Amino acid sequence: xxxxxxxxxxxxxxxxxxxxxxxxxxxxxxxxxxxxxxxxxxxxxxxxxxxxxxxxxxxxxxxxxxxxxxxxxxxxxxxxxxxxxxxxxxxxxx
Length: 94
Fold this sequence. Notes:
This protein is an alpha+beta fold. 33% of the residues lie in helices and 20% in strands. A 4-stranded mixed beta sheet has the order 2-1-3-4. The longest helix is centred in the N-terminal third of the chain and has 16 residues, at 11-26. The model has no long low-confidence stretch (mean pLDDT 90).
């Protein structure tokens, strides 16, 4: 599991990082936390308010410090197996 923390290193960004780490540890997940502080990378990710939380490159939250329990719930969500299928390129059955 790749966990991205988007922010400039402020107190809220640090707190979100700590919550994300606690959530991943509580679930027994293998994880890496990547702290993204470059303002251009933050903007490119579509984040207009920090801190931001990303999971495996997908932004899940911006502008708030999620609780450990909220992050655990996000970490336990199963990805939609059909989310990556583009029906315009032959991903369908017909």
